[in-house]
């Protein structure tokens, strides 16, 4: 398609921050913009500049005729790609592109894209910090925080972008300089019919990459390595279990980087962020900066200064000798398994939420070995109670306040309480951030009453 947007009729689907960013970009380039959102008008807060310049607002549903007559449909990441109006538009030959694709076509700077089931946000933020410590103008965003469309038209040396499987569903020409696939475990099976479909969405990251580009891959993940067999990009591996002749390895208490005759060593005990999974995140994050010429000392200083992200194994407080950790971002079972790896009993786990219908089997052995008491909340509680019966003590809670009170009652001094739900938040909260904030507020209440 011709990327001249002047006078093109474009339907933007989704009126959140990303949709508003898309609308502004399209208006700036002369497009005639219609904004469509399934929510009723009274639930949509649209900025004044867009109210004045958008050609038509289509709220409370999606009007099929607008999609049939469009030159382009641009969708926000949370919009399912199989809703009827999008399927009909495609059948009519109307391009349906995601925000990432639209933005990338107008960004000349080198782009690093990070995907995987777990660790994406940490790796994206950490790598951005490394490039910024190297005094490079670096955009950090995508699925994490700032939409990529907001980067267009600014001066950057690098763009470091987190991508979800949803965002990768709607790329076409998207072509990063580095593509990172951190891991793959069951997730979003409430959206995908099976794991093969989920893996295929992740694999799209590499479909336009050539042997001039670099794929950074987890050598310890069988699903990742199966995808690696089908890609043209040069492969650089990281591993916490194998000694690699080339790539990044964990050897004893050191990270060892070997590439093109260079060998650098980094002492793991200097890292602040806890857990084996975060060691793997640091390994992945180091590779693109080092391969791009960032001094090893600069990159490592950024790694050791990094204190982690909110709602990701963050210490929420210590009350009556019990430490409380907020891992609300643990929205799938694989993430909970990783978080439990570094946990020391006695441990109380608060889990549950909106059920993504993934297998609970990977959590059976960690539950048996690490969890002394399980407190369950949300709509997934019944299925999780049935799956884990007999492995540990289980309590049901009706709210986050109730869960925190139960956890406080059953956890002995010297123990740990971990909120790592293994589920999305949308049955009880607007997002994982709100869930984490409510948890921290309840822990603060305990501390005040102690």
Number of domains: 3
Oligomer: single chain
Unreliable runs: none
Tell me how many strands there are. 20
**Name of the top-level CATH class of the largest domain:** Alpha Beta
Count of helical stretches: 16
Work out the helicity level: 25-40%
Share of β-strand residues:
15-25%
From the coordinates shown, what is the CATH architecture of the largest domain?
3-Layer(aba) Sandwich
Strand order of the largest sheet: 7-8-6-9-10-11-12-13-14
| Mean of residue pLDDT values | 94
The secondary structure category is: alpha/beta
What gyration radius follows from the Cα positions, in whole Å? 23 Å
In short:
This protein has 450 residues and is of the alpha/beta class.
């Amino acid at each position: 398609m011709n990327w001249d947007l002047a006078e093109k009729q474009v339907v933007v689907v989704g009126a959140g921050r990303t949709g508003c960013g898309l609308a502004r970009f399209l208006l700036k380039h002369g497009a005639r913009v219609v904004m469509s959102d399934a929510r009723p008008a009274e639930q949509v807060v649209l900025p004044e500049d867009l109210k004045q310049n958008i050609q038509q607002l289509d709220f409370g549903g999606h009007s099929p005729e607008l999609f049939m007559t469009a030159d382009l449909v641009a969708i926000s990441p949370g919009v399912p790609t199989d809703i009827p109006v999008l399927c009909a538009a495609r059948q009519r030959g109307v391009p349906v592109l995601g925000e990432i694709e639209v933005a990338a076509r107008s960004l000349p700077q080198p782009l690093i894209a990070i995907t995987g089931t777990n660790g994406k946000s940490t790796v994206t933020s950490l790598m951005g910090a490394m490039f910024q410590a190297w005094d490079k103008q670096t955009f950090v965003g995508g699925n994490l925080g700032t939409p990529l469309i907001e980067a267009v038209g600014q001066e950057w040396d690098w763009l470091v972008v987190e991508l979800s499987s949803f965002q990768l569903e709607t790329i076409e020409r998207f072509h990063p300089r580095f593509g990172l696939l951190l891991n793959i475990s069951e997730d979003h099976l409430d959206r995908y019919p099976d794991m093969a479909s989920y893996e295929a969405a992740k694999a799209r990251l590499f479909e336009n990459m050539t042997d001039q580009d670099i794929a950074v891959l987890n050598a310890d993940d069988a699903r990742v390595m199966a995808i690696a067999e089908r890609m043209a990009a040069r492969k650089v591996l990281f591993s916490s279990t194998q000694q690699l002749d080339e790539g990044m390895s964990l050897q004893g208490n050191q990270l060892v980087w070997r590439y093109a005759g260079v060998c650098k060593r980094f002492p793991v005990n200097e890292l602040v962020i806890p857990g084996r999974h975060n060691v793997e995140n640091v390994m992945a994050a180091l590779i693109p900066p080092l391969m791009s010429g960032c001094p090893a000392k600069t990159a490592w200083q950024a790694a050791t200064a990094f204190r982690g992200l909110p709602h990701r194994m963050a210490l929420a407080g210590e009350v009556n000798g019990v430490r409380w950790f907020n891992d609300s971002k643990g929205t799938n079972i694989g993430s909970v398994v990783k978080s439990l790896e570094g946990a020391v009993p006695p441990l109380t786990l608060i889990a549950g939420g909106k059920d993504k219908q993934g297998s609970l089997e990977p959590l059976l052995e960690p539950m048996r070995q690490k969890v002394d008491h399980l407190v369950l909340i949300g709509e997934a509680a019944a299925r999780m109670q049935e799956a884990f019966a007999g492995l540990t003590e289980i309590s049901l809670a009706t709210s986050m306040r109730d869960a925190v009170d139960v956890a406080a009652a059953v956890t002995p001094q010297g123990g740990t309480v971990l909120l790592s739900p293994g589920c999305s938040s949308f049955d009880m909260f607007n997002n994982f951030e709100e869930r984490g904030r409510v948890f921290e507020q309840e822990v603060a209440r305990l501390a005040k009453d102690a």
